[in-house]
Amino acid sequence: MTPLDRTASGTGSSAARFYPWLPFMTTVAVLATVLVLSFTHNTAAAVAIAAAVAASSVRITVHIRR
Q: Please, where are the H alpha helices in 1-66?
């Protein structure tokens, strides 16, 4: 019979250590893509990607006071 215990095993192989690097690596990948596109004279695509990333990175927080 298999055990139903789902606690972490503590082996250190969890993906939680990767999560803090995810935004940084995404930013580096997008910047590299935009630079390559702009250097290859594909400025329309570079501007479109940069605008899409800028628009998706905007965060709006609303604090309601009562």
A: 22-39, 43-56
Closest CA to 30 of 19, 38, 18: 38
Beta-carbon contacts of residue 14 (< 8 Å; ≥ 6 apart): 8
**Residue 45 token pair:** 């695509």
Contact in structure between 33 and 49 (CB atoms under 8 Å): yes
Reported as a single tens digit per residue, the pLDDT across 24-53 is 888 888 888 888 888 999 989 988 888 888
**Phi, psi dihedral angles at 6 (to 5 degrees):** -110, 25
- In the block, tokens 């972490």 appear at 8
